[in-house]
Amino acid sequence: MNNQLLPQDLNIYLKLASLAQQGRIPHAMICHGRQGSSKLALALKFSQYIVCENKQGNEICGSCPACIKSTKMIHPDIHYVFPVIKKEGKKRMDTVSNDFLPQWRASVLSNPYISIRDWMKELGADNNQPNINTKECNEIIQKLSLQSYESPYKILIIWLPEYLGKEGNRLLKIIEEPTDNTYIILIAEDLTRILGTILSRTQLISVPPVRDGEMLQVLQDDYHLEATRASQIVSLADGDMGAAIRMIRTTSQDYSQLLFQWIRRSYKSKPEDLTSLINTIANLGREEQKNFLQYGLSFFREYLFLIQTRKRGPRLTNEEYDIALKMQSIVDMEKCYHIVELLDENIRNISRNAHPKITFMAMSMQMGALLKGEDLSPVNI
Ligand SMILES: [Zn+2]
Questions:
Q1: What does the alpha-carbon distance between residue 172 and residue 373 come to, in Å, rounded to a whole number?
Q2: Does domain 252-372 bear CATH number 1.20.272?
Q3: Around ion ligand 1, which residues have CB less than 5 A away?
Q4: Residue 3's pLDDT is what?
Q5: What is 7-209's CATH topology?
Q6: Helix, coil or strand: residue 80
């Protein structure tokens, strides 16, 4: 997947390639976009283009030694810097990106849309504050002052320069006056967290969120999801391809089935039917429970749109649309607002480690009462 750009990113890639052909690659640039956009994938592809020994126009050859090494992220002239935590057996101040390079490569190759949370999870770090430290900055300066190894070019990719903080000042000089044939590509999500002095010295390249249609295509073609599940994930991911990939890896259920079953049983309020379903949900694990509730939330938002505008939103599948039409006799706008609140509140509860069975049981009672228009006051759990 690392090797393929989405059709929507092609324009940006072609612009960069054309700058390269004119010998006008900016010495320092920031590819920025929301979490889960293609900014890192684009930077990897463009780096490959720069070092490819056999490129024809905009085309990368894909088979020269430089291409092979860069697709495996082992090209000696493409350097990677990213936020890290203390490495076991080392002091924090002595730990740098290279200490985690194999894990970084594996993570990015399997998901170039990786988020900082995914990365911290990969490092087994829950509460540690990642950063890019002084030693790293000094090493960057040193690396870039050395001769390149195999390519005439040296490329430095800094993922999430937001984590540089004030250390970024140490890099100003190399960003302003880099050595010849050296390119610095920063991959950022939040420009407000980057020093103004860096921003003013770099060319900004804005990368849009992944479009629903293109994400759907990837989920069906590359991940072989069937259409209904792919659409559910697209609607949950909301332009964040990394989130979609995370969901594919944690999701085992068709959420629409589960949601409608849960709503039906909550409405009927038969304790034995509810208990068995809640046990199923409790066994899913916390990530999936959150995904499930998120799915419910996005369904009811679409539903709200439908009853407000009488128009079918693009994210509603045929099955969901049929159910939504039937639901109209029971769930009016007022009830729908309350359901959205209920789901929203319980996503927070589950995230805060609330007990799943108790949470889902309380939620089911509230849902049942809501649907029957009995009692809208929240149940304390
Ligand atoms: Zn090549």
A1: 62
A2: yes
A3: 52, 54, 61, 64, 67
A4: 60
A5: Rossmann fold (3.40.50)
A6: strand
Instruction: Kindly indicate the confidence band of residue 380, based on its pLDDT and cuts at 50, 70 and 90.
Output: very low
- CATH 1.20.272 in the chain, residue ranges: 252-372
Q: How far is the CA of 188 from the centre of ligand 1 (A)?
A: 27
- Residue 40, pLDDT > 90, answer yes
Amino acid letter, 201: R
User: How far does the centroid of ligand 1 lie from the alpha carbon of residue 151, in Å?
Assistant: 11
Alpha carbons 298 and 289: distance in angstroms, whole number: 14
User: What is the per-residue pLDDT for 166?
Assistant: 87
CB-count exposure of residue 1 (10 Å: 0-12, 13-18, 19+): middle
pTM of the full structure? 0.78
160 and 192 Cβ atoms separated by less than 8 Å: no
Cα separation, 11 vs 367, in Å, equals: 47
325 alpha carbon – ligand 1 mean position (Å): 54
